[in-house]
Design goal:
The protein has two helices and eleven strands, in the order βββββαββββββα. It has 158 residues and is mainly β. The strands form two sheets. The chain has a six-stranded mixed β-sheet. A five-stranded mixed β-sheet has the order 3-6-7-5-4.
Length: 158
């Protein structure tokens, strides 16, 4: 079996895994700048490496959690994978520092999370796949789709 070096990121209402190559830096949480017209799962933006980087609340996007700025303690900077020069990075909000994790490919299921595993009745947005890690549902965020959805906001607010 092929092992994947990943990072486990705890966030409100759940946890996510990212390939080690997509994570760039972990920063302490700081109050973000406002992005007018942004969906509720985008809590704002921060200036980082000369880019306005949107800060994404995966708990809000995937699980429909209500916004709670007090819950976040980390910003995990990742490559957006959107293919757009205006948006090379995303900031994912975490409740704690990511931790290194080695997964076997066989542990990851691609596609949407079965609705019976969620506490809502609509398909999940922003999910590329999922896994069970330590008996807990763990999502693989679709960084490309999330980034592509945010490109119009960045172009509008430059």
């Amino acid at each position: 079996m092929q092992s994947l070096r990943s990072f486990l990121i705890p966030f409100r209402e759940g946890q996510g895994i990212l390939p080690g190559s997509s994570m760039i830096e972990v920063l302490p949480f700081a109050n973000p700048l406002t992005i007018e017209g942004a969906p509720g799962w985008v809590v704002g933006a921060m200036l980082w490496r000369a880019f306005n980087v949107p800060l994404v609340d995966l708990g809000g996007l995937i699980f429909g959690a209500d916004p709670d700025m007090e819950a976040h303690s980390r910003i995990v900077m990742v490559n957006a994978l959107s293919g757009h020069q205006a948006l090379p990075y995303l900031g994912l909000l975490g409740t704690d520092a990511p931790r290194l994790l080695n997964l076997d490919r066989s542990q990851i299921t691609t596609g949407e999370i079965p609705l019976e595993m969620l506490e809502k009745d609509e398909p999940n947005k922003g999910v590329l796949g999922w896994a069970m890690v330590n008996r807990k549902l763990t999502i693989v965020p679709d960084l490309s789709a999330i980034g592509s959805a945010l490109v119009p906001l960045i172009h509008h607010h430059r």
